[in-house]
TrEMBL record:
This is Gfo/Idh/MocA family oxidoreductase. It comes from Mesorhizobium australafricanum. Residues 131-251 form the GFO/IDH/MocA-like oxidoreductase domain. It comes from the Bacteria. Gene3D superfamilies: Dihydrodipicolinate Reductase, domain 2 (3.30.360.10), NAD(P)-binding Rossmann-like Domain (3.40.50.720). InterPro entries: Gfo/Idh/MocA-like_OxRdtase_N, Gfo/Idh/MocA_Oxidoreductases, GFO_IDH_MocA-like_dom, NAD(P)-bd_dom_sf. Pfam families: GFO_IDH_MocA (PF01408), GFO_IDH_MocA_C3 (PF22725). Signal peptide: none annotated. Residues 2-121 form the Gfo/Idh/MocA-like oxidoreductase N-terminal domain.
Amino acid sequence: MMKVVLVGCGAMSKRWLDAASQIDGLAVVGLVDLDAERAKARGREHGLAAAIIGTSLDAVLDQTKPDAVFDVVVPAARREVAFSAFAHNCHLLTEKPLADSPENARAIIEAARRAGRVHAVVQNRRYVADVRRIRRFLDSGAIGKPTSIHADFFVAPHFGGFREEMRHVLLLDMAIHTFDAARYMVAGEPASVYCQEWEPASSWYRQGSSASAVFDLGGSKVFTYAGSWCADGFRTSWEGSWRIVAERGSLMWDGHDGLKAEVVVPGRDGLFDKTQPIEVPALDPADRVDGHLGIIQDFMQAVETGTEPETRGTDNINSLAMVFGAIESAETGRRVMIARDAQ
């Protein structure tokens, strides 16, 4: 039985606890929040009457002595939570982003290394079924090596609250999902980025609700991202809309159920090479999906077997580097080189 303390009982914690309730061998033994009443309410909602409730993570960890900490706090508090978890010899699974700055990200990863604990990030777009299918299809070489990856993200939510006051709101709050999915699908590693942000006249955000970025993903692969938090009409999926161009064909995914590919065949039709549809195989039984549920299961397996989870911090820091590189480029107006961190 793995004993867990969850810290941060805001809205996102519901998704974590919903997933945790479906897993045999996992017990949430503590809930921590600056607002004790909010933690108590979350415990009642999920039938956690026996869980210890507190406002101090250290105190609850001392009392419960869990195996792991689930971190669902705001990014600015992530470093403090991580250091507390590792000081109590706990493994750590954290909500995205890994940290609120490159320096804090590196500090958390180093602390996990020194403690010898498993550290992973809930980067749940990797656990979408079609993202898995795309990666396997491209790895098969059916349309050759990917050369150009294009993603559009146009959604216009009225969140209210802190997001509408954030700087770099699209890049910092949402874009890492798309950036990480791009890295994963084409097995790319970021080398550089040029990015521009702007605020449309119709925007209800303080700053950075719209952005366009061009990344060099190495191996002659270029990734373009165009996104907006305030584009009314023709809304994309939360997963974005994708076109991946490869050496011998292309793949398109609308972010919903529309996944299709074409491959070049012999002959020409006027100026153009002939193409024909090619099937993208169904999900492989070995692929773990289901968002938070899949990631928590992956994390638990890593703890139990002494292996590394797919969304380990030492890998995820490279997706986070894409975010901070894009922000630096937007602020400076120049192309930014992205240093690859430890794997």
